[in-house]
Amino acid sequence: MEKHKNLQSYNTFGINVVAENFATFDTVESLQELLKSPVYTSAKKDSILILGGGSNILFTKNVEGLVLYNQIKGMQVIHEDEHHAFVKVGAGEHWHDFVLFCLTHSLAGAENLALIPGSVGASPMQNIGAYGAEIKDIFYSLEAVDRDTYSIVTFSNNDCAFGYRESVFKNKYKNQFIITNVVYKMNKKPTFNVEYGAIKQELSKMGVQELSINAIAQAVINIRTQKLPNPAEIGNAGSFFKNPEISSEQFSTLKKEFSNIVGYDLRNGNVKLAAGWLIEACGWKGYRKADAGCHALQALVLVNYGHATGLEIQHLSEEIIASVLAKFSVKLEREVNIF
Ligand code: FAD
Ligand code: NAP
């Protein structure tokens, strides 16, 4: 157990805050021991944070209770059938290392999700997604420790109630479970998904003649590296807001006034708006106040140029939400977890 631990290098926003207590666990047993310790049982539940890679968190204050830092490792194929391989992965593994494992073992399904920062344990939290893929498509099950009873509970894909950047762990079971491992059901035969964004363009730029999961992953890596700010250089947590879903009627009304507005039809009949477009249309792209800003290449990403506080970034996000609401009557929701 460490005292007064600085968390600046443990969150990709690079916010300078301190944890009163900081403990690392690398097995389920060591986690269960920590949950029984006085420093855990005496802290208020909302002053305890389960931390992975810190790439989806905005710290607005010090952690007065305890940070539990997940370092459970391990990656192995635990079962195979004709079409699938089931890979069990420790929650403390880096997500991208798992993607690389799949590429090395010719297992398909994670290639569009290459280079997403963070841990495997956080991947089900918001059903991470990119380039037309989401983990719900390859997720089989997970194990998690109940924070009150210390027991291990298994969740199937259905139990997780995955939605767009959503799961049961952000809603019904918020702050209730600590995910310790995830089993992914990977495909032995790939179904290529290159319809999204700039993947096709990038593949042709790369001179790819024959599609493969390696080529797709490399295309995604290339696009992401060019487009997104690297947290090692400029603090950020990826998309700060979710893309809002509105009715097709509301979309038609907006389209009459804003002919360039970007929306994608959803299977349920609604329309998903590109939040980045809305924010840019309100004039925020490239905006900077002190060290808090809206990224110049991708308006959906809020950034810390060095010494911004979490409250300054949160305040900027509130101004953005208010201006988008005033102009488009659409309320943006944050994707990033505020602590
Ligand atoms: P953390 O930030 O450490 O935690 C996030 C939340 O999950 C917290 O509430 C935390 O308490 C909880 N949590 C973490 N681990 C556990 C656990 N084991 N058990 C229970 N609760 C836990 N996201 C996407 O979906 N798609 C993208 O394409 C994408 N691109 C990104 C690009 C950049 C440059 C950055 C910085 C972020 C991006 N993100 C993206 C967001 C982020 O990478 C993901 O949400 C990632 O899954 C967060 O993982 P983490 O380990 O860093 O989580
Ligand atoms: P982009 O390709 O410029 O597209 C802008 C937005 O339009 C995206 O948010 C995406 O929605 C949507 N979109 C694009 N093509 C689409 C299609 N064919 N069908 C439906 N929706 C479509 O976006 P980008 O910023 O460069 O990001 C590329 C991908 O990486 C996106 O999937 C994005 O979600 C993901 N990403 C996520 C984060 C994060 O922190 N969550 C950070 C960086 C990138 P979706 O977001 O719903 O896919």
Structural topology:
Elements: E1 2-6, E2 18-25, H1 28-36, H2 38-41, E3 48-51, E4 57-58, E5 63-70, E6 75-80, E7 84-90, H3 95-104, E8 129-130, E9 133-134, E10 139-146, E11 152-156, E12 177-187, H4 199-205, H5 213-227, E13 235-239, E14 245-246, H6 248-257, E15 263-265, E16 271-273, H7 275-281, E17 288-289, E18 292-294, E19 301-304, H8 310-328, E20 337-338
Parallel strand pairs: 2-5, 3-5, 4-20
Antiparallel strand pairs: 1-2, 6-7, 7-12, 8-9, 10-11, 10-12, 13-19, 14-16, 15-16, 17-18, 18-19
The structure holds flavin-adenine dinucleotide and NADP nicotinamide-adenine-dinucleotide phosphate.
Residues 12, 49-57, 70, 91, 116-119, 121-123, 125-126, 128-130, 178-179, 228, 231, 236-238, 337 line the site of flavin-adenine dinucleotide.
Describe the model.
The protein has 339 residues and is an alpha+beta fold. The chain contains 8 helices and 20 strands. The strands form 6 sheets. The chain has a 5-stranded antiparallel sheet. A 4-stranded mixed sheet has the order 1-2-5-3. The protein has a 4-stranded antiparallel sheet with strand order 13-19-18-17, with helices on one face. Strand 8 (129-130) and strand 9 form a beta hairpin. Helix 4 (199-205) packs across helix 5. The longest helix is centred in the last third of the chain and has 19 residues, at 310-328. It is globular. Residues 129-131, 195-197, 227-228, 238-239, 243, 264, 274, 276, 298, 335 line the site of NADP nicotinamide-adenine-dinucleotide phosphate (NAP).
